[in-house]
Amino acid sequence: MHRSARLDAPDVEVTDFAGLAIGWDRRVLRPRPWTAEQGRWAADLLLGAPDGPILELCCGAGHIGLLAAHGSGRDLVQVDEDPTAAAYARRNAEAARVRSDVRVGPLGSSLRAEERFPMVIADPPWLPMVGVAYPDEPVEPSTGAVEGVDALHECVDVCLDHLAPDGHVVLQVGLSKQVERLTGWLAEYAAADATVPERAVLGVRDRRPGGYLVHVGPSRGA
């Protein structure tokens, strides 16, 4: 059963996100314009990909996944632990006329073990507890552990667990050292299970002061 949240707060705002009208309020992460590139990049990578919906983890108000769905004509599965964010994701999907199965709860347990997706989009909590880069935003939705990697690592594991064999991930991180950590995690994941396809970082786009966008896909050497 979905937990529900009220969206009748007087401070609801609507932001134009690359042509989509996205509702949100200060309880969730502000839709940041630079992240539209994440949705567009995901849509481009889906050209010619097998059928199936897009999975968006840590979806927040749902704007990045919705942009990818608009660009690719696909349905969505969106997951967030925060009922308020999920409620906005549902409302924004309805407004955009995109079919989205929005789920509330921990990332791993919100997905069935057998579910696989050709594309996973993720905006995990990656900010370190010290030196938060977005002081005007709520800390919890965008903050990981001391180095900003615990929640990011958990999210990457869920991405890989539910990625189709030839699928792709486009995720957001904030620090160059997190990109380096990601490369190591991919190697560890492949070493732990010889039956899973090898994956690698295939592209990185530096969009600071916002962050980095990272494309993970089938290893070119596999």
Automatic annotation (TrEMBL):
PANTHER family per UniProt: HEMK METHYLTRANSFERASE, MTRF1L RELEASE FACTOR GLUTAMINE METHYLTRANSFERASE
UniProt cross-references to SUPFAM superfamilies, sorted A to Z: S-adenosyl-L-methionine-dependent methyltransferases (SSF53335)
Alphabetized InterPro entries for the sequence: N5-glutamine_MTase, SAM-dependent_MTases_sf, Small_mtfrase_dom
Protein species of origin: Nocardioides panacisoli
Domain of life, per lineage: Bacteria
Organism placement in taxonomy: Bacteria, Bacillati, Actinomycetota, Actinomycetes, Propionibacteriales
Protein name, as recorded: Methyltransferase small domain-containing protein
Domain named Methyltransferase small: residues: 51-126
